[in-house]
């Protein structure tokens, strides 16, 4: 079954100036008052959650395992005149590809859940190695605690319109004995009240509970660890109700 990361046309289907503005507003609120001049996104994908940072005067770098996603990110950055340093690598081996420090090192797009829980501490340690003293480490994730507690299987999105076409997206989640979950992403495209296109993708995730992440950050010496809803415009994070969250933590100077 194909991965949605091989289809940037589908992955970026809902990109729009309005979405970019909302993403920029999220970063403005999250980073308010913090001297962030450089940032590295270690799971940058096509840059949808990262490129809006450039409007805040942040020098951007990024990495991703997918060359297809990076190629799309590079084109989007060029289109908007955003200089960016992009490298293809696994975020478990970041220090073999980057040798500088950043004010902010982040992982966007629920990407930490792609590795088993016993590798999470190693990924955060790799990210930490690239954070400047007094800098910040950040990530966003689905609320896996809620998903595991509720044994959630179906996730529905509101219909969206691309031109005159209506796009419907539903996810079906298969829970496995090894605690991983396969996400089935089911798209239908309608025109004139008829479905003219169907797409099915699969992604495998390893749910990670929030406390493991917070404990790991604390063990790495991070202070002022903030947990917020994602995006922050959604209000306070509620572990029983929120679908996504983000974490921002400051490294000791």
Q: Please, could you describe this protein's structure?
A:
The protein is built from six helices and twelve strands. The protein has 253 residues and is of the alpha/beta class. Strand 2, helix 3 (67-79) and strand 3 form a beta-alpha-beta unit. 30% of the residues are buried.
Topology:
Elements: H1 8-11, H2 17-30, E1 38-41, E2 59-64, H3 67-79, E3 84-88, E4 102-107, H4 117-128, E5 131-142, H5 144-150, E6 154-156, E7 160-162, E8 165-175, E9 181-191, E10 194-205, H6 210-219, E11 223-229, E12 244-250
Parallel strand pairs: 1-2, 1-4, 2-3, 4-5
Antiparallel strand pairs: 5-12, 6-8, 7-8, 8-9, 9-10, 11-12
Which percent band covers the strand fraction? 25-35%
Averaged pLDDT: 96
Q: What is the rounded Rg?
A: 18 Å
Instruction: Note the quaternary state here.
Output: single chain
Number of helices: 6
- Strand tally: 12
What sequence of helices (H) and strands (E) makes up the elements? HHEEHEEHEHEEEEEHEE
N-C termini distance: 46 Å
**Strand order, sheet with most strands:** 3-2-1-4-5-12-11
Low-confidence stretches: none
Helical amount among residues, as a percent range? Answer: 10-25%
């Amino acid at each position: 079954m194909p991965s949605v990361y091989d289809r940037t046309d589908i992955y970026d289907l809902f990109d729009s100036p309005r979405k970019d503005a909302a993403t920029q507003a999220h970063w403005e609120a999250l980073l308010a008052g913090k001297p962030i001049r450089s940032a590295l996104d270690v799971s940058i994908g096509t840059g949808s959650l990262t490129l809006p940072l450039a409007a805040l005067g942040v020098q951007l770098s990024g990495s991703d395992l997918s060359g297809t996603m990076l190629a799309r990110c590079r084109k989007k950055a060029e289109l908007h005149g955003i200089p960016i340093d992009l490298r293809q690598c696994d975020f478990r081996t970041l220090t073999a590809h980057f040798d500088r420090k950043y004010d902010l090192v982040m992982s966007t797009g629920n990407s930490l859940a792609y590795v088993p829980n016993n590798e999470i501490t190693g990924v955060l340690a790799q990210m930490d190695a690239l954070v400047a003293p007094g800098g910040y480490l950040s990530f966003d994730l689905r609320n896996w605690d809620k998903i595991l507690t509720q044994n959630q299987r179906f996730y529905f999105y509101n219909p969206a319109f691309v031109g005159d076409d209506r796009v419907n997206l539903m996810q079906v989640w298969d829970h496995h004995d090894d605690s991983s979950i396969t996400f089935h992403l089911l798209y239908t495209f309608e025109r004139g009240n008829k479905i003219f296109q169907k797409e099915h993708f699969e992604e495998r995730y390893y749910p990670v509970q929030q406390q493991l992440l917070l404990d790991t950050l604390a063990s790495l010496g991070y202070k002022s660890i903030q947990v917020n809803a994602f995006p922050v415009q959604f209000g306070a994070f509620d572990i029983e109700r929120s679908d996504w969250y983000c974490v921002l933590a400051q490294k000791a100077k």
